[in-house]
Amino acid sequence: MRNLITIAFAIALFAFTTSSSADSYNKSPEFAVKKLLGEIKQIVKKDNLSDAEKAKNKKHSDIALGVLKVPEISKKALGKYWSKHSVEQQQTFQTLLGDLFVHVAFPSSAKFFANLDIVYGKPKSKKDMMVVPLTVVHEKEGEVDIDFRMKQAEEGWQVVDVILDGVSMRNNLRSQFYKILKKNDFKDLVRRMEKKLTETG
Question: Which end of the chain is more exposed for a tag (fewer CB within 10 A), N or C?
Answer without folding.
Answer: C
